[in-house]
Amino acid sequence: CDRNMAQAAEALHVHHKTIAYRVEQIKKQSGLTLNDPEEILHLQMGFKILTLLSGDSLSVDDNSLKLTKKT
Length: 71
Known about the structure:
3 helices; alpha+beta; two-stranded antiparallel sheet; 14% strand; globular; 71 residues
């Protein structure tokens, strides 16, 4: 949702504070700031490469990001 927490919350059907909390947890655990455009690009490229190499797909299920096998 183009880094918009309110839009992401609406798309995931969760409260915007849930998104903010989860983003903070990702930042703490990964050491990322998520403010640097190059850092964000690297993350996007990494997820894309992961899905291309694995033949799987990334999806949102039960309000979480999951890697699912294509059948």
